[in-house]
Every structure is written in structure tokens, then in C-alpha cells.
UniProtKB/TrEMBL annotation:
This is DNA-binding protein. Residues 376-385 have a biased composition (Acidic residues). The keyword DNA-binding applies. The lineage of its organism: Bacteria, Bacillati, Actinomycetota, Actinomycetes, Kitasatosporales. Residues 1-11, 364-375, 484-503 have a biased composition (Basic and acidic residues). Residues 1-25, 364-399, 471-520, 790-814 are annotated as: Disordered. Pfam families: Helicase_C_3, WYL. Residues 817-878 form the WYL domain. InterPro entries: WYL_dom (IPR026881), XPB/Ssl2_N (IPR032830).
Length: 892
């Protein structure tokens, strides 16, 4: 007996599972749980039985998601199965991937890859009968209208399906094959010719050189070409012999069997069984990396604080379509002294962390009525909420402002504040690098506006950090090889053949942040997301000098993984945030409580200052430069600002004496005394407005000044001058003339001008847009597998056929229903019941009654795998189970 005959006999003896449902039913619980873990979309909702699970696993949306989560070689194996016979043997699949010459790497990697495809229910069947799920085959297989991702076209049988029998016989004759009596045998003969490498080579020996050049261009795809009504001689030679077959008028295709022969049996030009290695671009001491990352983390905190401080009294207005205007983004970039794309990143980070929001719009109900003792029956609404509602009704513009969470964040230690930001950055789906680009409707994407969510962003961000963590501490990866590795792990499918990816340019400089990306280019988006992840990690201090820092590695811990971004103190207090903060804290300098005063009216802060000192000094002086040390400059305007805030000259002198490690310079003392002596000499109040001064000569000087003409002053008394300008304009005009007026109240007291901190109502940070259902935990997997098994046992339990309802449940009367379930409870048998719940949904349950009383039946529901109670009046019918065959166990 031949080996082929033995192989056929073996297949006949053990045909294997007949369907995907049967293949899944034969799995153990661990294998079924692995399927649900790798494809969590199958769990929503939990399938009722294995048949429903198999049906859902074969739907187009689920199969597409599963294919998109395969690595390059697994996807190549699936593509090869799509062009192989159905079913195909393991050896046929290996030949398609390794080719006629074989490939040891392919042979070594293929068993694990086939096991992976089996685990994810994309392939089923025995080793000699591998079947690709039908939907996956439809997506990956070539047809008469499009090629597969391998670049292969339709088979001879598919391409000749509409061809006349006479034309097929003519092709056989031209190819040197004998005439056949029917079309099926003619197609089989032509397919056999093209599948034979030696016979194809012999056929092409007599081909014109131009014909061979055409085949060379088509062999690796795309396999389609255009011909005219009168094709050239070299094209006619190929058409006559079936090496080019017509598909549509004017279009021809190279048949799959001929292409494989010309390729040497390979389905892919370059199989990629081995994952690319991430190369090391530079190697530094881990201590240097941690120090650099710690310094950058401190700079990140300073930048976010500066942003929020600049918006403390109310930030820029919200555009009607949502988001920040280009002008406001430029102003923010000027304040932060960074490029606009980088400023957009910090704005988006603060927004994702829940530190800034719009002061109007929908208010999240953080304050429940039962939390407020004074809540009335209509529900509690605080003053800020009512103000926001009033502004919306009056048409007043909404503005961005810090949220109440900002005050809580500001009071945390620096390391915990940084961890709070990182808990928002890592799972966030908003991509600030897209700002400035265009969306699918050709609208500009703005900071804080809609359309910035990209669901692959968290996965790319985390995977970049994981690959960096795979290197030794202190090693910085080469970005080009990092990107190549990510492309191998998540190749992007397309309708056409896969092209070789161009390698990104290797330049000495780093790519600029931002720049946007085309809305319909997912490959460019993933590339940009990778570049942005590297740049954002460096700006935040997760990496230092291109390598992952010690506290950056702690970010990848699975414990404490938050569901949302910036969830208040809960995010900062999570297990992961606590670990990260503890690792970062030693790298951050201790805040200082002193400065160094200099004779040139400047103060140098040699490090970060404690918050009360920094806030007080920010009022008394202007920041001149930032860096490792911050330089503050004292000016008459800054000193007047401190006096307007209610500080006296004596208090300012004492403040400087207390916090300066150097003697207070005499020029600074004179500056404070001089500004204080003139401060409040003039008093401005509201008439329209007026100026009051005890020194009449000062008022004479003001009235004689030409610059006062615009204020339209008029003397009412020797010490009082009235103006037709409002008090704010009058004060600014007098200050421009060199005076130092102070505003006074209606009672004549000097008004203290302290900045008013504006806060939004309570807000929740934006929720990330997931790329799919979340990965199930062990508890959910165990419960889901148990439910599927129970439902499957119930669904496959046989039932007795009845004349009233063959193949289904009979409609029984209440008396018959009661008698049947009582008898089953006494004998311990199971019965089928039809049940309608309170919502009117009908279902069939396999029930083992235990107790019948009070109009209810209680029993073990095999369908739900638990004890349940059903009302007898909601049971529509009852049927006994069919007799079990000898040796069979009843369903339990």
C-alpha cells in the first residue's frame, strides 16, 4: 500500500472535529480560558454555550480583531493557510512558508505559531486537516477581484470559472496538454501543469524574453495587469498558454499555481519567523540615567505648575467647537518658553490628569444629595454649578481653569505629584502630537478639543517601555530597531500585498514632537505614536538620556494599574504610584527655604523652593530666567504688586531678612522704601472715578500733564479730582505717568488687590477610549468557562419528541406542568422547561427540580450551573429528557 493511500486511510479512520464548535468542545477548561483571555471580545456577553462561542469567534469583527493582534509570522502563517487547499496538512503549510529549499528557522518556529492560531480559534482540525476559520479565509484569500496579502492571485479554477469550454481546450492545446472531454478535467490538468516546477520551467524555455519579464513583474504581486483588445505578441504568448488569465475586460491575472512555481513554492518573499532584536544605541551608567531622569521629572513638575499658575485666575476661552484656539496655545507656549507642540503636550497632560477643565458644560455629580445635610428634594447644586449654568444661559464664554483637584495635587510631595501625572499619561488615549493636523473631515485638530483619542496609543506607549525594560539598565535603544520590532509584533494588514517597510532615517538629531499625521494612514500613525512615546517619556523623566530609569521600570508593574487617568488621590495612592514615588523621591532635591539676594536687585534660588516661599517671591519679584537655579528680579512694578496684595514695607523687609542667606542689599531696601512711600499717596475711588490726595501740588502736577488728557480730569476740591474713566483705567493711566495710586473702597479704606483663584466645578478627567474590551481577570475567566460548560451540557441534552411540538418544547397546561415537575423532584430526574421572565424574554432551561411548593419550583439549573427558583405560572411547557443510551451519563 502506498504512503498516500495509508495517509488517506488514516484520515478516514480519524477525521478529527467536524466543526469549530466541536473542536472547542473537546478542549479542556484551561485551553478554553486561554481563548477567552486572548480574545476578550468573546466574553461580552458571556456565551450561553460552546456553539454560540464558536459562532461569535467566527464573526467578521471578532476575526478582524484577532488577526490584528497577531505578530508578523503568525499572520504570515494564516495568510499561507488562506492560499493552501482547505483543509491543508501541516506539511503543506510548512512548504508554503519555507519553500522548496526549506528553512530551518521557519521549521523551528512554525509549531508554536500553529499552536497560537489554534489557541485563538483561528485554526482548527488535526495536523493533517488544518482549517482556517471561514471568515479569516474570506479576508485573507485571493479572489478574482483582489489579491491576497501574499501577492498571490486566484487559482486556475477560480480564474477560469466563467470561461467557455472551447477557450479552455484551446489553452490546453497551446500549453502542450492533451484534449479532455470536460471542463473539470481540463482545469485540473492545467492546474497540475502549473503546480509542477519542472514542467513550468520547460514551458518557459520557449517563451519570448519580454514574456518572462512580464512574469517577473507579476510573480511577487500584485498579480494583475492591464491588456488592450489587441495585446502585443509577448502578452498573447502568455494568454494562449494560460499563464495570464482574463478576470475582467482589459484585466488579466497570473494564476496562483503558476506564481507559486515561479516563487519556488514560497507564499511570502521573506518569511519572518524571528522577532527583530532591539539594538543598543548607547550605554551609560544607571546612576547617570536616573539622575538625568530625576532632573527632567523636576522640570516637568515645574512646567505643569507654571501652566496651572498662569491659568489660576481663569484661563483661555473654550472654542465653540471645543478646545483651545491657536492664539491661546501660542500664548501658553510663550509663558512656558517651549515650542507650541510641546506646550500642547503639557496642556493635554494636565487635562488628562484632571487638573484643568472647562468651567462650563456638564457637571459630574460628585456631590450626591445624601452627602449634603442641607440638600432639598430637588437635589443639591453648589454656587459654582449655578454660576456655570447661568453663564451658559446668558451666552457668556466658557473658560479653562484649574479644577479643585489641582489644590489637592499641589499639596502633595513632588514625587507623588509626578506619579499622579504618570498615572494619567500611561493609559491615556489622547495623542497631543496630532494637534495642528487635520481630521477625516479636513478640520484642524486643536488642543483640548475633540478627535484626539487614538485607542492604540496606550498599547504602543506601554510596549515601548517594556522593550526598553528588556535591555540592561543604562542601555538606550536604537529607535529604528525599536520601531522595526513593534512593526513585527503588530503588523498592519491591508487589502493588497505587504510591501517592504522603509527604514526610518538615522540622523544625529532627535525628531521634533508633533507634526500631525494623515487621518487615513494607520501605519504612519503607529510610527508617530512610537516616536511620540519616546519623546514624551524623556520630557516626563521616565527615561534619562534615552535609557529607561529605575522609577520608569516600576511603571510597568501590573499591580495598582488604574482604570482611568488621574483619579484624584486614589491614583496617587495606588500601589504602583507609591512604588514609583518612593523610587523617584531620592532623585529629587529637597525644596529650599532660602534665596541669595544680590546687589543688582536680583535673587537667586539655587534649587526648588518650598511652595509658600515660591508663591510669595513670585508676587514680590519677576522671574528672569529658569534652569538649575531660578533668577528673580525686583522692579518697582513687582514691589508695587506686593504692596497691592496687602503687604507693608515692614513685612517685605522682614520677609527678605528671614529667607535670604546673604545680607539684604541696600539698593533693594531703598527700592522697597521708595515705592512704599509713594504707594497710596493718591487714592482712586468710584464716582465715575475720582482721585483724592492730601498733597495739592501732586494733583496740580497731574492736571498739568498732557498725558492726563484722555482721562478727562476735573478738579472738584483742592484735594479731589474727578475723572470720566473707570477706576481700573484711571489707575493704569496714573501708573503710566509715573505715580503709584492705590484703589480705595466706598468707606475710604485702601483695597487690597489679591489675585482671585478661579476653580471649575468638580470634574472627572477624560476617560481613555479603549481599543477593545478589557482583559478579563482570573475570576471572570473561571466563571465564564463554567457558564459555557454548563450551557453546553444543557444545550446538548436530548429531549423526548412529542406529537404536539416535534423538535421543541410542548405547550403544557398548568396542571400537567405541576405534575411533571413534582414527579421529577420525587425521582431526581431532569426536565426541559420553557420559561418567560418578567421582561417577556423566553428561554429554555434544563432543570433538576428539588422542591415544588407555594407556586414555585426550586432546582439545579444546568444551563446556568446554579440553583434557581422559577414561578410555575411563568413556565410555558415541560418535556422529559430522552432515554440515555447504555453507558451514557445523564446531564448533571
Amino acid at each position: 500500500m502506498s504512503a498516500e493511500q495509508q495517509h488517506r486511510d488514516g484520515q478516514a479512520a480519524d477525521p478529527g472535529p467536524r466543526s469549530l464548535a466541536q473542536a472547542l468542545r473537546e478542549r479542556d477548561d484551561a485551553s478554553l480560558g486561554a481563548l477567552l483571555r486572548s480574545r476578550p471580545d468573546l466574553l461580552h456577553p458571556v456565551p450561553t454555550d460552546v456553539t454560540q462561542l464558536a459562532t461569535r469567534a467566527g464573526t467578521r469583527a471578532s476575526v478582524l480583531r484577532a488577526l490584528e493582534h497577531l505578530d508578523r509570522f503568525a499572520l504570515q502563517a494564516a495568510e499561507a493557510l488562506a492560499v493552501a487547499p482547505d483543509p491543508a496538512s501541516y506539511q503543506e503549510l510548512l512548504d508554503l512558508l519555507a519553500g522548496d529549499d526549506g528553512d530551518e528557522e521557519v521549521a523551528g518556529a512554525l509549531p508554536a505559531t500553529v499552536a497560537l492560531l489554534r489557541e485563538r480559534a483561528l485554526v482548527w482540525g488535526g495536523e493533517d486537516r488544518l482549517r482556517l476559520v471561514r471568515t479569516a479565509r474570506e479576508l485573507l484569500a485571493p479572489s478574482a477581484s483582489h489579491s491576497s496579502p501574499t501577492g498571490l492571485g486566484p487559482s486556475v479554477a477560480e480564474a477560469t470559472s466563467g470561461m467557455s469550454p472551447g477557450r479552455i481546450q484551446a489553452i490546453l492545446t497551446a500549453a502542450g496538454l492533451p484534449h479532455t472531454h470536460d471542463t473539470v478535467s481540463a482545469v485540473a490538468a492545467l492546474s497540475g501543469l502549473f503546480a509542477d516546477r519542472e514542467r513550468v520551467a520547460e514551458l518557459l524555455e520557449g517563451a519570448p524574453e519580454a514574456s518572462r519579464e512580464v512574469l517577473t513583474r507579476l510573480v511577487w504581486g500584485p498579480p494583475y495587469g492591464q491588456v488592450t483588445a489587441e495585446p502585443a505578441a509577448h502578452l498573447r504568448w502568455l494568454l494562449d498558454r494560460g499563464l495570464l488569465l482574463p478576470t475582467t475586460p482589459g484585466t488579466v491575472v497570473l494564476p496562483r499555481e503558476a506564481a507559486l512555481s515561479l516563487r519556488g513554492g514560497r507564499a511570502h518573499r521573506v518569511p519572518e519567523p524571528t522577532r527583530p532584536r532591539v539594538a543598543v544605541a548607547a550605554e551609560r551608567k544607571p546612576q547617570v540615567v536616573d539622575a538625568a531622569a530625576g532632573g527632567q521629572a523636576l522640570a516637568a513638575l515645574d512646567t505643569v505648575e507654571e501652566l496651572l499658575r498662569s491659568w489660576d485666575e481663569g484661563g483661555p476661552a473654550v472654542l465653540r467647537a471645543g478646545g483651545l484656539s491657536i492664539r491661546d496655545l501660542k500664548r501658553t507656549a510663550t509663558v512656558l518658553e517651549v515650542p507650541e507642540p510641546v506646550a500642547a503636550f503639557w496642556v493635554e497632560l494636565a487635562y488628562a490628569a484632571g487638573l484643568i477643565a472647562s468651567d462650563g458644560g456638564y457637571v459630574e455629580e460628585h456631590h450626591e444629595r445624601h452627602d449634603r445635610p442641607d440638600a432639598d428634594a430637588e437635589g443639591y447644586e453648589d454656587e459654582e454649578t449655578r454660576d456655570a449654568r447661568t453663564r451658559r444661559r446668558s451666552g457668556e464664554a466658557e473658560h479653562y481653569a484649574p479644577t479643585p483637584e489641582y489644590d489637592a495635587w499641589r499639596d502633595l510631595p513632588p514625587a507623588e505629584r509626578w506619579a499622579w501625572l504618570l498615572e494619567a499619561w500611561l493609559p491615556g488615549t489622547r495623542a497631543p502630537g496630532l494637534i495642528g493636523g487635520r481630521d477625516g473631515r479636513d478640520r484642524t485638530l486643536s488642543a483640548l478639543g475633540p478627535g484626539l483619542d487614538r485607542s492604540p496609543a496606550p498599547e504602543v506607549r506601554r510596549r515601548v517601555l517594556e522593550l526598553m525594560a528588556g535591555l540592561e539598565p543604562g542601555q538606550a535603544p536604537d529607535p529604528a530597531t525599536l520601531l522595526e520590532r513593534l512593526r513585527w509584533e503588530r503588523p498592519l494588514r491591508s487589502a493588497g500585498p505587504r510591501r517592504e517597510q522603509p527604514e526610518p532615517p538615522r540622523t544625529g538629531g532627535r525628531p521634533a514632537y508633533g507634526g500631525g499625521v494623515a487621518a487615513n494612514d494607520p501605519e504612519a500613525l503607529r510610527t508617530k505614536l512610537t516616536e511620540w512615546a519616546l519623546l514624551e517619556a524623556e520630557m516626563l523623566g521616565v527615561t534619562g538620556r534615552g535609557a529607561l530609569a529605575t522609577h520608569g521600570r516600576a511603571l510597568l508593574g501590573a499591580e495598582g494599574r488604574s482604570e482611568g487617568a488621574g483619579a484624584g488621590t486614589a491614583a496617587a495612592g495606588s500601589a504602583r504610584a507609591a512604588v514609583v514615588a518612593a523610587l523617584l523621591a531620592p532623585l529629587l532635591p529637597e525644596p529650599l527655604d532660602h534665596v541669595l539676594l544680590q546687589a543688582d536687585l536680583t535673587a537667586v534660588a539655587p534649587g526648588p523652593l518650598v511652595r509658600p516661599l515660591a508663591e510669595a517671591l513670585g508676587v514680590l519679584a519677576d522671574v528672569e530666567s529658569k534652569g538649575g537655579a531660578t533668577v528673580y528680579r525686583f522692579t518697582p512694578g513687582s514691589v508695587r504688586r506686593a504692596l497691592d496684595a496687602g503687604r507693608s514695607a515692614t513685612e517685605l523687609h522682614a520677609f527678605l531678612d528671614r529667607h535670604s542667606r546673604t545680607p539684604v542689599p541696600q539698593p533693594l531696601t531703598y527700592l522697597i522704601d521708595d515705592v512704599a512711600r509713594r504707594h497710596g499717596l493718591l487714592r482712586v475711588g468710584a464716582a465715575s472715578s475720582y482721585v483724592r490726595c492730601d498733597d495739592e501740588s501732586v494733583l496740580d502736577e497731574i492736571l498739568a500733564d498732557r498725558r492726563a488728557t484722555a482721562l478727562r480730569l476735573r478738579r472738584l476740591a483742592p484735594t479731589v479730582v474727578a475723572a470720566q474713566a473707570d477706576p481700573r483705567t484711571l489707575i493704569e493711566g496714573l501708573r503710566a505717568m509715573g505715580f503709584a495710586p492705590a484703589a480705595e473702597s466706598a468707606e475710604g479704606d485702601v483695597m487690597i488687590a489679591r489675585p482671585h483663584a478661579h476653580r471649575t466645578p468638580p470634574r472627572t478627567p477624560p476617560a481613555p477610549v479603549p481599543d477593545g474590551p478589557p482583559a478579563p481577570d482570573a475570576t471572570l475567566l473561571t466563571a465564564a468557562v463554567r457558564a459555557v460548560r454548563a450551557g453546553d451540557r444543557a444545550a446538548t441534552a436530548p429531549r423526548k419528541e412529542t406529537p404536539q411540538a416535534p423538535g421543541g418544547l410542548p405547550r403544557t397546561s398548568p396542571a400537567d406542568t405541576l405534575a411533571t415537575v413534582q414527579a421529577a423532584a420525587m425521582t431526581g430526574e431532569s426536565v426541559w422547561i420553557g420559561h418567560v421572565n418578567a421582561e417577556g424574554a423566553a428561554s429554555q432551561r434544563l432543570l433538576a427540580p428539588l422542591r415544588v411548593e407555594g407556586g414555585y419550583v426550586t432546582g439545579y439549573d444546568h444551563t446556568a450551573d446554579e440553583v434557581r427558583t422559577y414561578a410555575l405560572h411563568r413556565i410555558t411547557g415541560v418535556a422529559e429528557l430522552a432515554d440515555e443510551p447504555d453507558g451514557a451519563e445523564p446531564a448533571r
